[in-house]
Amino acid sequence: MKKADIEKKKSLGRALYLSGMEQTEIADKIGVSRVTVSKWCSAEGWKEARAAKSITRPELVNKLLLTIDTLIEQVNESKDASLIAGLGDKLAKLSSVIEKLDKKANVVDAIEVFMAFSKWLEHRAQTDPELTPDLIKAINKYQDKYIVESMGASLGR
User: Fold this and answer.
1) pLDDT higher for 73 or 152?
2) Buried b (16+ CB within 10 A) or exposed e, 75-105
3) pLDDT in tens, 76-115
4) How far apart are CA 10 and CA 70, in angstroms?
5) Which end of the chain is more exposed for a tag (fewer CB within 10 A), N or C?
6) 3-state DSSP helix/strand/coil % of the chain, to nearest 5
């Protein structure tokens, strides 16, 4: 089998896996062994991608908040000085993760909105003479600047 054919099968296999199909079904459907699909799944990070796709940002934030609550309860019940000492650091790290998730989500949300708005502008420009190519170019320029600056802020720059 040619490398291009293998890559096509791998790409299709990944799409099927991300849609929830089991490895055995994928192997049958694309004509490779289940072991091959399993190797691709491990080597290419398909499991992680499927997990990331299936959990929403609010669900992840809620899980992190529950983890924080559990940590606090464990420390309060144990009265162990070493656990108490390490609690602040753990809480700071978990809080930082939550904050980063919020900032990244805001940038992703902005990109999605700007893309939809740009498509709308292109469609609208066909019937609205005020929407000139120069105006659309200027709007896109400032959208890009906003995204770059927002990403810089979310990366702590």
Assistant:
1) 73
2) beeeeeeeeeeebeeeeeeeeeebeeeebeb
3) 788 777 777 777 778 888 888 777 766 655 666 777 788 8
4) 41
5) C
6) 85, 0, 15
Long-range CB contacts for residues 36-43, cutoff 8 Å, separation at least 24: 37/13, 40/10, 40/13, 40/14, 41/17
Burial class (CB in 10 A: 0-12, 13-18, 19+), 37: buried
| Residue found by looking up tokens 């420390």 in the block | 75
Choose the CATH number for 3-54 among 1.10.10, 1.10.760, 3.30.1360, 3.40.50.
1.10.10
Q: What is the mean pLDDT of the chain?
A: 80
- pLDDT at position 157 is 44
